């Protein structure tokens, strides 16, 4: 049930308040009108529940409390398990570098359960498989029961294919879309009252940064949008990655809405940011949590050809507007959220934040965003400086990366 | 060793002096007579190429490694998931050993036409057989054979390392007597109409990282310790076999079969237990997964079996290994184990980790060059995790309880 309540309730937060009016005005006008909501920033040095739970509880309280958002509701949480679970940075666990940490997921689930959520569904589209998410995370040495038992009525679903649904859900982009007018997604993204993005704080090779919005690129099922997608109808099982969105070398299955303008650039740095904004507009984010306690610098996963290093910013960020929270997170990473193509971290790509702001999802202007908890200046971890130093050095050789 | 055609000078025998090579397969003909004579005098046994000596099972193998596509600019071939397609002879060695336990297994696999000689490629060839208890018939490519005859240093280096690898397995012959650790049993006659499917299933189970036991249908089935069995044949099992398998399911095991199994007892399982390609039924403490269609896809069966059993019980997990293979075997008293790990890429990994299920108290890592001195181990409740430094394409983990 895709509840109208949710749309009304969160209209003021503008995750969904995207209409023709935004598109009709000037860019500056739209940006000025884009919503601004509080963002909570907290220091959290470890993933120990004793530190994590009270920290996250306080952050949610700073945002007005979880109860008003989740009580009596079905909550869907998109986590970030990018890449295969068989690749690590060195010998480090995946959750210490590029996967959303299971303790952050479990803590969020626990607090949502305590706040009255009736059903909590953990969603991800794992790499090239229709296997249950529980099976996927076992391969990363995780214990699914830690999350399943964190509250009542918790379940996982692999959204990289039809899953337990009878048909794909057609999710329309309210403003018509940059790239796609609508998407055919796993039913889980429609059958929820509240949608949450729990992301990892990272740089990204194609999109500059990956935060709460970019995390939603994985909403797209590879049976429709992947390398092995069926031509006419979705394939039964997902195969490969989302090359067709990255490269535009073919369209999604013909049963799904097609790209608006096949003559648009076939560059991933143009296509991915726009598709992300289309996705988070079709499937609005009501709550975003960014895990920056331990992460990595240099990219989004071990396959990136950069000098990848583990990092421990010791940060958690939460908010109800994805553009606002991503803007604050960028600032915490030492980047200017107002940056555009040509400026770090968007040297080669368009800014997902700007594109989202342009269609009125939320502002990236820090002067309009209230930051609760620790100040940006106090909490900043200098990804930008590390990036600058790293890029002054030769690119490492490709190989099986440690 | 297959004696290279270019080595008509018996002085080439110096190259194998002191090595583990004890059998030469030499082409017939007068020109090799001096070689044969001198080899016999040196105590070596002599045979002819492509013919198994008496008492030996010779399997026709593939050149092991990541398959390269010849028509596509030498690119790496990929399987249905996009993972690299790996050729390995391990399943053939194990099947031959299961069907003829008394006979040693040799693997006849020659380098492909587009072969680029390297120590790593030959190490994989030796280890891909040795790990599974077989012996690769050392078969040099023509260029390497000529270069060795001329005693070129680069060729000598590759040769020394190849011989060292063969020697390593000769020094650890006891490992070949260890029994495979397994989660899944594959039941078949492995012949006739069932040959292609059952054998490809073994091949793909290994590629999926599933640790299996081969259970010839007409032999007494040892289901001890297994979590699932795959009934791979297209014919219904006889009453005795059906009864034994259903007893295994009722006690908590899982059965994976095609519709040709016939009517399955038990009750329809929860929808969550179903995969896209299998219908699940529960019986006693166990479950039955029947393929929805008679068409049997060994790739799908192999991969679905892993999930049906659950990754929770993975015997071996490998990180940062690329295209890998592993074989986990236990000593007869189960107090020792060896896990052979093969990295099929063209160089070994620089930071792989290997998790092995079981309550092991100590681990040593070996390469054919000797012990790996700088491993780190993490002890978990039901597993040990070994972090490796840069290693070549083959590592043996020796574990003690």
Account of the 3D structure:
The complex is a heterodimer of chains A (402) and B (401). With 402 residues, chain A is an alpha/beta fold. Chain A has one domain (4-221, 261-391). Chain A has helices spanning 4-9, 20-24, 27-33, 49-62, 67-70, 102-114, 133-138, 144-148, 222-225, 243-247, 268-282, 322-332, 352-358, 376-379, 383-391, and strands spanning 39-43, 74-78, 119-124, 154-158, 169-172, 182-185, 194-200, 202-204, 208-210, 287-292, 295-297, 309-311, 315-319, 371-373. Chain A has an 8-stranded mixed β-sheet. Chain A has a two-stranded antiparallel ribbon with strand order 5-6. Chain A is globular. The termini of chain A are far apart. Residues 1-25 of chain A have low confidence and may be disordered. Chain B has 401 residues and is an alpha/beta fold. In chain B, strand 1 (23-25), helix 1 and strand 2 (45-47) form a beta-alpha-beta unit. Chain B starts with 22 loop residues before the first strand and ends with a strand.
Morphology call of chain B:
globular
Shape of chain A: globular
Estimate percent helicity of chain A.
Answer: 25-40%
Note poorly predicted spans of chain B: none
| Sheet/helix structural class of chain B | alpha/beta
- For the terminal residues of chain B, how far apart are their CA atoms? 37 Å
Q: What percentage of residues of chain B falls in helices of 4 or more residues?
A: 10-25%
Main sheet: strands, sense, barrel of chain B:
7 strands, mixed
Tally of DSSP helical segments of chain A: 15
Helix and strand string of chain A, N-terminal first? HHHEHHEHEHHEEEEEEHHHEEEEHHEHH
Beta-strand fraction estimate of chain B: 25-35%
Radius of gyration of chain A: 19 Å
The overall strand count of chain A is: 14
Give the number of DSSP strands of chain B.
Answer: 26
Order of adjacent strands in the largest pleated sheet of chain A: 4-3-2-7-10-13-1-14
Distance between the termini of chain A: 45 Å
Considering residues with a beta carbon less than 8 A from a beta carbon on another chain, report the largest interface and each chain's count: A-B, 29 and 31 residues
Strand content of chain A: 15-25%
Kindly name the structural category of chain A: alpha/beta
Note the total helix count of chain B: 8
* Nearest-integer average pLDDT of chain B: 93
């Amino acid at each position: 049930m895709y509840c109208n309540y949710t749309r009304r309730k969160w209209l003021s937060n503008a995750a969904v308040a995207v209409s023709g009016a935004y598109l009709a005005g000037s860019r500056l006008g739209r940006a000025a009108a884009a919503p601004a909501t509080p963002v909570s920033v907290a220091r959290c040095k470890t993933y120990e529940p004793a530190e994590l739970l009270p920290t996250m509880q306080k952050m949610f309280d700073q945002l007005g409390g979880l109860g008003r958002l989740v009580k009596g509701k079905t909550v869907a949480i998109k986590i970030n398990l990018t890449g295969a679970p068989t690749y690590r940075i060195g010998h480090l666990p995946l959750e210490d570098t590029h996967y959303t940490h299971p303790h952050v997921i479990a803590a969020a689930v626990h607090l949502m359960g305590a706040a009255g959520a009736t059903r909590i569904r953990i969603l991800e589209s794992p790499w090239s498989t229709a296997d249950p998410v529980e099976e996927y995370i076992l391969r990363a040495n995780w214990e699914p029961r830690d999350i399943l038992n964190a509250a009542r009525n918790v379940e996982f679903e692999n959204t990289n294919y039809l899953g337990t649904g009878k048909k794909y859900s057609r999710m329309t982009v309210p403003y018509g879309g940059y790239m796609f007018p609508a998407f055919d997604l796993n039913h889980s993204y429609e059958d929820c009252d509240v949608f949450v993005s729990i992301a990892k704080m990272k740089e990204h090779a194609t999109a500059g940064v990956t935060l709460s919005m970019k995390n939603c690129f994985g909403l797209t099922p590879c049976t429709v949008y992947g390398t092995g997608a069926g031509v006419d109808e979705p394939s039964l099982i997902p195969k490969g990655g989302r090359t067709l969105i990255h490269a535009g070398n073919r369209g999604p299955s013909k049963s799904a809405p097609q790209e608006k303008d096949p003559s648009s650039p076939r560059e991933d740095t143009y296509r991915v940011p726009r598709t992300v904004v289309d996705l988070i507009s079709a499937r609005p984010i009501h709550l975003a949590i960014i895990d920056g306690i331990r992460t990595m610098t240099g990219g989004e996963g071990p396959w990136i050809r950069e000098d990848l290093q583990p990092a421990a910013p010791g940060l958690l960020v939460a908010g109800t507007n994805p553009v606002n929270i991503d803007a604050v997170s960028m600032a915490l990473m030492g980047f200017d959220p107002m940056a555009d193509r040509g400026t770090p971290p968007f040297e080669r790509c368009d800014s997902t934040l700007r594109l989202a702001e342009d269609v009125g999802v939320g502002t990236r202007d820090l002067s309009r965003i209230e930051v609760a908890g620790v100040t940006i200046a106090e909490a900043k971890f200098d990804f930008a400086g590390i990036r600058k130093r790293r890029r002054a050095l030769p690119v490492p050789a490709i190989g099986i990366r440690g | 060793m297959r004696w290279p055609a270019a080595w008509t000078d018996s002085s080439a025998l110096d190259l194998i002096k002191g090595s583990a090579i004890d059998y030469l397969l030499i082409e017939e003909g007068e020109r090799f007579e001096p070689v044969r004579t001198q080899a016999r005098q040196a105590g070596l046994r002599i045979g002819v190429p492509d013919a198994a000596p008496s008492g030996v099972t010779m399997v026709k193998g593939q050149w092991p490694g990541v398959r390269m596509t010849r028509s596509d600019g030498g690119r790496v071939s990929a399987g249905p998931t996009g993972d690299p397609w790996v050729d390995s002879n391990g399943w053939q060695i194990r099947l031959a050993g299961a069907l003829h336990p008394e006979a040693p297994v040799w693997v006849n696999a020659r380098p492909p036409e587009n072969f680029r000689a390297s120590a790593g490629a030959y190490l994989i060839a030796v280890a891909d057989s040795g790990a599974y208890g077989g012996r690769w018939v050392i078969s040099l490519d023509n260029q390497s054979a000529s270069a060795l005859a001329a005693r070129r240093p680069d060729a000598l280096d590759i040769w020394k390392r190849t011989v060292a690898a063969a020697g390593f397995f000769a020094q650890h012959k006891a490992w070949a007597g260890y029994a495979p650790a397994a989660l899944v049993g594959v039941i078949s006659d492995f012949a006739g109409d069932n040959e292609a499917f059952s054998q490809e299933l073994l091949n793909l189970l290994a590629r999926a990282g599933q640790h299996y036991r081969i259970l010839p249908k007409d032999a007494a089935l040892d289901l001890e310790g297994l979590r699932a069995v795959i009934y791979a044949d297209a014919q219904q099992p006889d009453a005795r076999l059906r009864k034994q398998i259903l007893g295994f399911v009722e006690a908590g095991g899982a059965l994976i079969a095609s519709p040709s199994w016939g009517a399955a007892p038990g009750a329809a399982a929860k929808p969550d237990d179903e995969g896209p390609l299998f219908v699940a039924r529960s019986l006693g403490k166990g479950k039955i997964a029947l393929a929805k269609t008679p068409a049997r896809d060994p790739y799908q069966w192999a991969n679905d079996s892993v999930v049906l059993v659950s990754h929770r019980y993975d015997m071996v997990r490998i990180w940062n290994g690329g295209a890998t293979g592993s074989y986990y075997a236990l000593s007869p008293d189960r107090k020792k184990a060896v896990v052979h790990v093969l990295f099929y890429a063209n160089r070994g990994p620089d930071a792989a980790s290997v998790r092995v299920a079981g309550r092991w108290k100590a681990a040593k890592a070996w390469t054919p060059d000797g012990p790996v001195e700088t491993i780190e181990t993490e002890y978990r409740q039901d597993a040990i995790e070994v972090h490796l430094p840069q290693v070549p394409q083959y590592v043996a983990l020796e574990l003690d309880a």
